């Protein structure tokens, strides 16, 4: 069982520190894919290498790969670490294109933000680690994701979908 911050936790899960705990089942697969694009032993991919990985291995177009890269480059250093890639692989993986399409379906016109009512209805059918969400849970997820701006852009939406993937209630 993997640990983070010295707490044992089952996977997929989020540690008390906020990090997604990597499932060992995905760890070797992620490392195998990641290693194909490494030019050194640093376990980090510069942006061009990471973009190539995302487009080649996951069938994303350049714009979609850019979106995923920006969403998972957590420290915004234009480098994708193995840890950041594992988070992408475990939570989004081959569903990146579909998640972007869902965002576009839920978007208010061309505002760059989702329509909250459409999102509320769409989240009723989303499966989490605990099953389907209650209306109270959906409302909580939407409010906490939107924050003070009361809007959810694509990056916030991807973060929301990742949180839902590991949510156990």
Automatic annotation (TrEMBL):
It comes from the Eukaryota. PROSITE patterns: EF_HAND_2. Residues 60-95 form the EF-hand domain. InterPro entries: EF-hand-dom_pair, EF_hand_dom. GO terms for molecular function: calcium ion binding. This is Calmodulin-beta-like. It comes from Plakobranchus ocellatus.
């Amino acid at each position: 069982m993997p640990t983070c911050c010295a707490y044992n936790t089952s996977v997929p899960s989020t540690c008390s520190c906020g990090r997604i705990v990597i499932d060992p089942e995905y760890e070797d697969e992620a490392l195998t894919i990641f290693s194909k694009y490494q030019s050194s032993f640093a376990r980090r991919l510069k942006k061009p290498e990471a973009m190539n990985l995302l487009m080649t291995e996951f069938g994303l177009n350049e714009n979609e790969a850019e979106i995923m890269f920006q969403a998972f480059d957590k420290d915004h250093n234009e480098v994708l670490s193995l840890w950041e890639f594992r988070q992408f692989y475990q939570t989004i993986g081959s569903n990146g294109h579909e998640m972007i399409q869902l965002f576009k379906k839920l978007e208010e016109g061309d505002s760059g933000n989702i329509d909250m009512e459409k999102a509320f209805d769409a989240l009723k059918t989303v499966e989490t680690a605990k099953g389907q969400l209650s209306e109270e849970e959906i409302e909580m997820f939407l409010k906490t994701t939107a924050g003070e701006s009361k809007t959810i852009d694509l990056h916030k939406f991807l973060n929301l979908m990742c949180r839902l993937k590991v949510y156990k209630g």
